[in-house]
């Protein structure tokens, strides 16, 4: 039984240009941490990610949701978590502050993730193992499919899960091999040209075959020059992703993307405002076969549904510490499976939680095991930091979701 | 000069079913109030509206924005408010909590609205008068048109304002006649059938020719029965609007709206999730010529742009205490003017601020003077409550935006 709940506001300044992009020049990687203290002595830990200022607001909102879990048994909670998620996310007064977005939804992510962590700890297994072992029905009971009725009914979701049961045994072998990573840290926005080139060489030497450069400069020539520079340093066979962090207008994006074509980007990420479904549709159509990667700032399944319906997203970057936690992440992954679009999460959690979720996505849903973003910051703050060898995530074995911080 | 700033969390329980709809069974009408204390002795007051829980979070976020106004002269602030709005709404760490939505954007609304209020008070005129007397260039300098470049450049906006200069003198006569209202309070969700019928008769007797019924029940038969009942009580010539408060799934909406067709609703409001642009497009196409009214929960100009681009909204219900305040309200009104869609605001402010804005929209932008929502609650808490006679808003004459509360 959950005896009491608490939240913590933890912030980690990075410094020296790390984490910088076209809009976030001086981010402070921060977590709104929810802890569920069980009478078994176990503590479930859940995270939502922010960039510093306002992290306290997310904690306060998480307190409100978490209070409703007091006195409950985690197995009972998770047996119908989809219903609880619906109730919490539609709480009649709090809902006005979203709905299903912003501070309140980040808070719900933190609380939801704490529930999944406690659940896995109580069962004594890593979260990926718990999830892949759930029956299709038990899994669906953890999800809220409301507002998806036009694309994914419960029956359709069930059929999708059952169809993908075949081939699981083979896909499960990935837990021995490890899940591939890509390096996001070679080209932070404020890094000098020399530092970027050096980082590219280091990443290739470490075994990474995919890496990301931050673009979205006020000066498009800088973006184009640096993109070409990374291609030259990395060679033709490395996948290079370009991330504009929403800094282009649609007319700018149309122009710059066409000029970036010849350096052969694997994707272009967040070219413009994350709410602008139609602009992304127009851009994707214009720059095909170059693909867009979208979702870092998309707060809920409804907007992801629109992105998938317009077929503008070549990759979906849903983040379980941005949407309403593991539950909504899985719902969105099911939608992606239906639409045949790979899920490549943004990792506000530094990959700690997502290393579990991408294993589940591949093994249980049959999503492609493409690669998972790797951000090397904050490792020293996690009790069980991710382990990357030769550019590959080593499968976590500790019980839970690997989100315990040393605090 | 703004000497200091403060925020207040004020909440007014309504009781007895007032304010209730399909999702909000027990709302507490609340304002996150920002006050800018000028060394002239004047105080600018701005509001953001919530339904109770979490109003304190909006206040805390508003404190963060308001602090950046300290020491500034309001005329200087407003001379380039569009730039300040861009800066505040893209503040590099806070932005993560939106962007441009949820708690942080409600907070920005409160601060923005306080700026406009102080500006009008300092000039000693009601806000509507200040706004209609601005030159097109001065008005545009108060707006942030970023992410609208594909539909509304600064040049296009300027041309639109200049085109609509003709005919202003005639349209300005509305300030003598008053702006028509419609009655939102005849059919709150929890009101009994008898109370609704009684309210319809009272509203007609008071001179209202348009009124709204809350639908979106779990039982569609209740919705249909009550809609027919209101039509019968009101007669054929009263405009009746139906408001589902997002409670239908798309398949449900498609079915129920077709069954509501024969009672001839003037619009159907918020049929499903406010983020679901494509569902609204599909529904609007299916139920034409019945029109949808949308926007109460839409947080920013980018999403409104998508709604207008898909042509699914027959009426745009932007609320200046939900989007980023007066500035973004005007930006969205300009977009609506371009697309030829009437602006009929949702009035989280109980009409206090919007009575100014619809006069501006009609006189300066040439938007149709359709009608403005009237909610009779909270009148006793405002220093200068709206005055409705014969169903018509009397033009406010006091300096400012009529948002001062007795607190």
UniProtKB/TrEMBL annotation, chains A, B:
Keywords: Magnesium, Metal-binding. Pfam families: MR_MLE_C (PF13378). SMART domains: MR_MLE (SM00922). GO terms for molecular function: hydro-lyase activity; magnesium ion binding; racemase and epimerase activity. GO terms for biological process: amino acid catabolic process; carbohydrate catabolic process. PROSITE patterns: MR_MLE_2. The keyword Iron does not apply. Its cofactor is Mg(2+). Residues 193-290 form the Mandelate racemase/muconate lactonizing enzyme C-terminal domain. This is L-fuconate dehydratase. It comes from Chitinophaga ginsengisoli.
